[in-house]
Design brief:
6 strands, binds 3-methylbut-3-enyl trihydrogen diphosphate, binds magnesium ion
């Protein structure tokens, strides 16, 4: 057991729909409650000295949901980007959005640009929201951009150092701790490249119930892990 706080925590916020269903509420009520928890977890993460927090808000596969739910999620996303900016500024949070923005409407694109521009110089927590994000998309767009930038690389030995700067989260170290709420034990096309050596933590706790205490349980679990990166335990001491 050590007391190091994970520098980068990445979370799949799952279970909003089930949280609502248990209460006989529409799914969107769960998503709204989920936003309250985002606010809470951002604050708690900053308080605990976490430097990077990455949240999966909408996957490239979530377009497959009923149009009504997708529409309401987009509206909610716009509302949050517009109304949380002040609070995030006060907390010195730097906001980044990753994902394929091309499918978003102009208003959402504008709000995304605005929140990133306004908070760009903030020195506190870096909050990354993954929206219309997919790990496979990220790797493919990175590959494409790398080869466009450096066509001479085709046919040569390509290293991680060539490739990783083109991933959309190139400004952050790889996640130390991955959390998935909602009980499923899968990655669902979240950060595929970057999770190679991340400690994984799965909890049945539904995202709208994931409070500071639940975050602390995840951090405590992380602190009990020995990260060996292929070495033996003896080599670490
Ligand atoms: C996660 O909660 C939020 C999004 C994917 C947008 P879900 O909506 O997937 O909730 P469940 O899994 O149906 O409970
Ligand atoms: C993963 O949750 C995506 C987000 C939380 C944004 P899903 O609920 O979409 O994942 P699956 O479909 O159960 O794998
Ligand atoms: Mg789900």
């Amino acid at each position: 057991m050590h007391s190091i706080v994970p520098g980068h925590v990445a979370i799949i916020m799952d279970g909003n729909g089930r949280w609502a269903k248990k209460r006989f509420l529409p799914r969107i009520a769960g998503h709204k409650r989920g936003v309250d928890m985002v606010r809470k977890v951002v604050k708690a993460s900053a308080d605990r000295g976490i430097k990077f927090l990455t949240l999966f808000a909408f996957s490239s596969e979530n377009w497959r949901r009923p149009a009504e739910e997708v529409g309401l999620l987009m509206e909610l996303f716009c509302y949050v980007l517009e109304h949380e900016i002040k609070r995030l500024q006060t907390m010195q949070v730097r906001v980044k959005i990753i994902g394929d923005m091309s499918r978003f409407d102009v208003r959402l694109k504008h709000l995304i640009k605005q929140i990133q521009d306004v908070t760009a110089e903030n020195q506190g927590l870096t909050l990354t929201i993954a929206a219309n994000y997919g790990g496979r998309w990220d790797m493919l767009q990175a590959f494409e951009r790398m080869l466009t930038d450096q066509p001479d690389l085709a046919g040569r030995v390509i290293t991680e150092q060539h490739f990783s700067p083109y991933l959309s989260m190139n400004y952050a170290p790889e996640p130390d701790l991955f959390v998935r709420t909602g009980g499923e034990q899968r990655i669902s096309n979240f950060l595929l490249w970057q999770l190679a050596y991340t400690e994984l933590y799965f909890t049945p706790c539904l995202w709208p119930d994931f409070d500071e205490g639940a975050l602390d349980l995840a951090i405590t679990s992380f602190q009990q892990r020995e990260r060996r990166y292929g070495r033996t335990s003896d080599q670490l001491t």
